[in-house]
Structures are given as C-alpha cells and as structure tokens.
Amino acid sequence: EKLFTHRLASFGAAAIWALYPLAVYHSITLFSETLLTFLLVASVFFLLKVGESYQTRNIILSGLFLGLTALTKSIIFAFIPMFFLWLLLFSKGKLILKLKSFIFVVVCMALTIAPWLVRNYFVLKQFFPLASSSGISFYRYNNEKTLELMYTPQREAFPFSDEQKEVMKTLSEQEVDQYLYT
What we know:
The protein is mostly helical. The protein is 73% helix and 0% strand. It is built from ten helices and no strands. The chain is flat and about 60 Å long.
C-alpha cells in the first residue's frame, strides 16, 4: 500500500500472491529466495520511509536490511546506485539531508556486512566477496551434463567427474569458486 497509492491495487496484488500455489509452497519450504524476498521487501519498505522522513530509525533499519539482503544475494549491490538516484530525484527534503541519509544507509549496510568480510579475510587470508557459492551455480547451470542428469533416477545435483572432485579437495573455498567458473 505504501508503494502503490491505490489501496485496491495493493490488496489485490497481495491477495493474488497469497493464493498463488507456488508462493504458498515456497513460504513453507526453506529456500534462500524466500528469505531474500522477505529481506528485499523489508529493505524497500524502510528505504521508502527514509525518502519520506529522514528518521534515524528508518535509516538504520534500511541499512541493516540491505546488509542482510546482500549477505543472502550479493546482487543487491547493483541496487545501491539506483537507490541513490531515486533518493536524489524523488524524495522530499534538502539535498544535504538526502546525501547524509544515503551515506548513513550505506554505512549501516557496511557495518552489517563487516563481520562476514572479516571472517572471509581470516579464513581465506584475503578479502573475498560475500558469497562464495556463485561458482557452483555457474557451473551447474552451464554444464551440458546437468540436463542429462536431471531426468535420471540418480538425480545427481552437481555433475562432477571423479577427477574434478579430487582437484577440488585440495583447493580453498575461493579457489574452488574460481575453478568452477573456469
């Protein structure tokens, strides 16, 4: 309702989503996309509130939810420049207030992400992006054996050869990620 000023459109969309069978199924299963959807909606909600009134609570919560969203899927970083443009062009208030709000949201987001970055530095001995599983997704969905194995009785999730499994045993988390990209 906050995003669309027309109340009927807001509740109609919510009702359709609540009755959509796939949405109901995903709400009771443990998928990263379910968590991502919740965190993204919470982020956008608090970002809209920041655009209306620059309250410290809204700024902190929007940064916190954006950070948690980034920890779930790091693609959210592409959203940050769009938020900046939206804040400059469409929100109320003076320019200096908009800039301060943007900076504080980004700082709160960075503080939320910081423990994971520190963990990656200590474990991997170098700074590493938030998610280290993107290589496995890239490999799985760009491998000719994936479709072949999807419809067999064994349904192996990741079609690695024995040679690949041996190579990956000797690699670090980041090296496995890079190996799977290649």
